[in-house]
Amino acid sequence: MALPPQLRAIQHHLRTAQEHEKRDPVVAYYCRLYSMQTGMKLDSKTPECRKFLIKLMDQLESMKKELSDNDSISQEVVGNAHIENYALKMFLYADNEDRAGRFHKNMIKSFYTSSLLLDVLSVFGELSEENIQHRKYARWKATYIHNCLKNGETPQAGPIAMGEDEEADEFGAEGFSGAGTSHGASFRGDPPSQSFQDQDEGLGPGPAPGIGFTPSPGPGPSGPPATNYNNIHIPPGAHAPANTPAELPPPAGSVHLSPEDFTKAQKYCKYAGSALQYEDVGTAIQNLQKALKLLTTGKE
Question: What residue spans carry the region label Disordered (predicted)?
Fold first, then answer.
């Protein structure tokens, strides 16, 4: 079924769902869930949009039944960790390629797809400031590298000194989605999303016709190697996750933990378990350290 023009803002999230149909059904499910929730806000009254969204709901219900025994579907905290780890893995792959000066379509798409998956995290609640900054940086990088290659220029490898935070903030999420840039920032050439669009608007179930690029390596044993996330240096306006202290003070017997603290600690442990599924030791250690710090000090 063709995507109504009123819902064009979710086309790349739906395309990402198609691409992961077999490779990672959990990613496909949450991309569609995000698309449905966003689509309902965009236009749920126009007959063509209503018809499209109802079909998308049916597809989600079907997927939910098929994946009912998957913890990432039945438990939101596990699903959240799964999507976040996947998005950051793609970000790391693209960032490593960028730092090594290897500019190609797969790395551009990896930057962009990671930003789409960080959008998807909003189905679990408000995005953390870190993920908002990573999303902004990934979209800006994809735009910058795409336009350099399009214009026959060599991109500058790695983080670029952009000066003050305000300047970095100009590279808003909208700039890459084709909806115009925020704060009046301008990019050379067309946004990469124009190149990503193919003419086939059939976004229903079934194999994706592709969007101009070969699939970028996904997280997992066959994907990009695990990297210590704390080693990444990102320019102002796009900050890497804060380091966790290497040494924690000895447990104080008088530490009072609230039910919320136990829930948070459990969440960090689940994040770590999800990271280990992808053999991502750095992320697993980081989350275990957060859980340990919370349990031993009562503070995050």
Answer: 172-258
